[in-house]
Amino acid sequence: MKDSRGVIGVPLRPLTSGQPAPKLALNRAYFDALETAGAIALPIPITRDAGRLRFYYELLDGLLLPGGADVEPRRYGTVARDDCNLTVMPELDEVELTLARWAIADGLPVLGICRGIQVLNVACEGTLWQDVNVEGATHEDHDREPRDLLVHGLDVEPGTLLARTLGETHLRVNSLHHQAIRDLGHSLMAVAHSPDGLVEGVELPGREFVLGIQCHPEELSRKEKWAARIFAGLVEAAGRGHKAHDREVSRA
């Protein structure tokens, strides 16, 4: 019998550098934040088999696209610049873009974090800055440790799904990225910006819950209420879909 809580899929990341053998892993903070919000977090392995990936997808009530490596520029119609120091994982791109497109098509709740907001944008045929400083999108440093350091402000458009989910329209966020949204994807709406003008929050109007945020709320969810609320929003939306599916099954 399926658990009554929503199941949130979380793609794992390939780890090879400095490892005695290839591994799949992801920062525990994502799983802790989801479980605190009441979800069942389901790790999704990187697979080249579309049928196996679809099997995992069919188990989901929601999808979390986490941070990680750079999206390969060919995915958004350009070539990699040598001066942008990219780290790409083509097999990860294939898995996450496929999952994102399936989820958007099916109305599944989605939350994209850091790389995840960029994957959402590329899945909707948008483009990215390969490096915000090298390409002149900003002169500010957006890649700042430690991971929970509140680096800059974030202005969220009032009345948007993101504003309602966070419960705030002005907040301070951490920042751990060197890429960002350049051209907005089809149907996506930019709903949050950093003080230097970078798009740092998006949503998909007309959908119950498709959000992207450039910062890392999983690192802040224990101390910042807005960060915990974004995971709660994803889990609540997934739970509503889960219950609706259960009702359909019971009537069948």
What does this 3D model show about the protein?
The chain is an alpha/beta fold and 252 residues long. The chain contains six helices and 13 strands. A hairpin with a 5-residue loop joins strand 11 (189-193) and strand 12 (199-203).
Helices, strands, pairings?
Blueprint: E1 7-11, E2 13-15, E3 23-25, H1 28-36, E4 40-44, H2 50-58, E5 62-65, H3 90-106, E6 110-113, H4 115-123, E7 128-129, E8 152-156, H5 161-166, E9 170-173, E10 180-181, E11 189-193, E12 199-203, E13 210-213, H6 225-251
Parallel strand pairs: 1-4, 1-5, 5-6, 6-13
Antiparallel strand pairs: 2-3, 7-10, 8-9, 8-11, 11-12, 12-13
Order of helices and strands: EEEHEHEHEHEEHEEEEEH
Strand order of the largest sheet: 4-1-5-6-13-12-11-8-9
Percent helix among the residues? 25-40%
User: Which fold name fills CATH's third level, the topology?
Assistant: Rossmann fold
User: What spatial form do the alpha-carbon principal axes imply?
Assistant: globular
Class computed from helices, strands and strand pairing: alpha/beta
* CATH architecture call: 3-Layer(aba) Sandwich
Q: Give the distance, in angstroms, between the N- and C-terminal Cα atoms.
A: 16 Å
